[in-house]
Amino acid sequence: MLVATRWSHHAGKRQPRLTTSEGFFGSSLEPDLRRRTLNTVSVWRDRDVLGAFVRSEAHSRVVAQTRACLASSTFATWTVLGAQLPVPWVLVRERLDAATNESAPAVEAT
User: Fold this and answer.
1) For 82-93, how does the pLDDT look when each residue is reduced to its tens digit (9 = 90+)?
2) Which of 33, 55, 66, 77 is the most interior residue, by most CB within 10 Å?
3) Residue 8: which domain range?
4) In sequence order, what DSSP letters do the residues of 46-69 get, joined into one string?
5) Which residues pair with 43 in a beta bridge?
6) What CATH number does residue 51 fall under?
7) Residues 48, 61: Cα–Cα separation, whole Å
8) Alpha carbon separation from 78 to 18, 43, 44, 51 (Å, rounded)
């Protein structure tokens, strides 16, 4: 619960800068209490504007403030057409699960 509360606090402060960021089209949050995670999805015009936001001072400040309360993060990016928006949460979760599995260390059978 602490992570969700702190995330909500910081997300609220970050939102005005996010919504005015060039190339930002929208975002959504989905808490998953069973996994104790918070899924987010955001839509950007292209990778360049996403990268500019990630490198911004506002984003860096939020990351620094929330890093201590987050156990880990998984990222997935892909391209969609405007007609495919909004992206269904089932697809977002599938992409995040696949990214998690790709980044997991290989386990050898014994």
Assistant:
1) 898 888 989 988
2) 66
3) 2-103
4) -HHHHHHHHTSHHHHHHHHHHGGG
5) 26
6) 3.30.70.100
7) 20
8) 19, 10, 11, 14
